[in-house]
Amino acid sequence: MRADLERVRQWADAKLATGEEPPWAWYQYMKLRETLDAILAGFDAVMPLPEDSPQPAERSASGPRLVVCNAQPRSAPHYPGSQPVPLPM
To answer: CA 34 to CA 25: how far, in whole Å?
Structure first.
């Protein structure tokens, strides 16, 4: 993964080095390069796991799942639809 990010950064550097990119593209390449620099610096800041340490367990199918509740909150005021809504003048 790190090698892929470094390869993309080299590609962006090569595009910037030509000087032939329009201003809007140059700006996007610079943002890409700055973002890749930050990600790569983050990789350097994280210590790699030793080879003999236990690896993180893979997610199981019985893990957390998203649950949706469509019930109205009880604290919400109820306004009947037959009353006119006052509009600002």
So the answer is: 14
